[in-house]
Design a protein that fits this description.
This protein is α+β, with helices and mostly antiparallel strands. 54% of the residues lie in helices and 12% in strands. The strands form 3 sheets. The protein has a 4-stranded mixed beta sheet with strand order 1-3-4-7. It has a 3-stranded antiparallel beta sheet with strand order 2-6-5, with no helix packed on it. Strands 8-9 form a two-stranded antiparallel ribbon. Helix 7 runs antiparallel to helix 8 (297-307). It comes from Mycolicibacterium cyprinidarum.
């Protein structure tokens, strides 16, 4: 199963924007840089999937996946997915107005706390989800009304702790099915990002092996190096195939397919385990140069390791696959994998 393709002109434009920025800025500064955000907003890419009548561009997840991939390919880190695909989507879904403020999203626990919130310290507003009894509520909160303790993941992206007084929050109801859909959307975002990082690590490994020589011949001529790169390519392709299968099913069913959670879990599991192989082999192919901060490889390998643990760890998604498989039993397992 293959995800729907994106118009080549749009994909080229996305790559051109990020390539230009990549050549003029250091990636470490991207999280605090508002100039790129304004540029993307002017091109209609900040609310890429939003409805046109509410100020969006009316595109879909294939275009959003292409945008995320282009950003990662050029080492640009910016909360496009959290803003467009998660926070603004949820506000649209519950009927709340959306303005031009930059947003992220978090789910509070019973104490009003959410750790590891992506980009909270850089956002202008935070879409908050919390539960009262068996009901879910959603609020579009100004950052002045909540406490944010700055943190970061292993690649320096903001992963902050958000604390809010639940008694002071006023929200609109959200159906449990909507929150479940948010959970799957968040997980699939990270699958797409991990796959983009793995593909970039593969590309760098091939280029390095073809251009570097050892004992008078290219590294690519050594069988051991060939095996390392073959394993990188195989694992990256498996992760990408599983992710595209989940994305295609999500798009075709408007995120309501009965087996969608299984497919998302498979994509997260494949991407998470693939990251271990790709990171190890890519650094072996590059040797000592691949460990230096100046080399581009770590932009992708460390990012893949960081992202695979967010919105559910690899162990969590492995356990979900196991639980769903056992519940399906031998008679219904194939229908769970391939219902058609």
């Amino acid at each position: 199963m293959t995800a729907p393709e994106v118009e080549p002109a749009l994909a080229d434009m996305m790559n051109a924007v990020f390539a230009e920025y990549d050549q003029s800025s250091r990636p470490a500064a991207v999280s605090r840089d508002t100039s790129l955000w304004r540029r993307l907003d002017g091109l209609g890419l900040v609310r890429l999937t939003g409805a046109e009548q509410s100020g969006g561009s009316g595109a879909g997840w294939p275009e959003a996946a292409a945008l995320m991939t282009a950003a990662i390919r050029h080492g640009v880190r910016i909360p496009l997915a959290e803003h467009d695909l998660l926070a603004c989507w949820l506000l649209d879904a519950v009927g709340s107005p959306v303005d031009g403020a930059a947003r992220t999203l978090c789910v509070l626990d019973e104490h009003g706390r959410a750790p590891g919130v992506p980009w909270a310290s850089c956002a202008e507003r935070i879409v908050i989800v919390w539960q009262v009894g068996g009901d879910f509520l959603v609020a579009d909160a100004d950052i002045d009304r909540i406490a944010i303790t700055a943190g970061a993941n292993m690649i320096g992206e903001p992963r902050d702790t958000v604390v809010a007084d639940l008694e002071c929050l006023t929200g609109v109801p959200a159906a449990p099915e909507l929150v479940a859909k948010l959970h799957l959307k968040s997980a699939l975002v990270r699958s797409i990002q991990v796959c983009a990082a793995l593909d970039s690590a593969l590309e760098l490994s091939i280029d390095h092996a073809m251009s570097r020589e050892q004992f008078g011949r290219p590294l690519s001529k050594f069988q051991a190096v060939q095996h390392l790169i073959a394993d990188i390519a195989t694992e990256a392709a498996l992760a990408r195939s599983a992710t595209e299968a989940a994305l295609s099913a999500a798009i075709a069913s408007d995120w309501s397919a009965p087996h969608l959670e299984f497919l998302v879990a498979a994509s997260r599991s494949c991407a998470g385990h693939a990251a271990s192989v790709v990171v190890r082999n890519a650094h072996q192919v590059h040797g000592a140069i691949g460990t230096t901060s100046e080399h581009r490889l770590h932009r992708f390998t460390r990012a893949a390791l960081a992202w695979r643990s967010e919105f559910g760890s690899v162990q969590y998604w492995d356990d979900r696959i196991t639980d769903m498989s056992l519940q399906a039993g031998s008679n219904r397992l194939w229908n769970l994998i391939s219902p058609s």
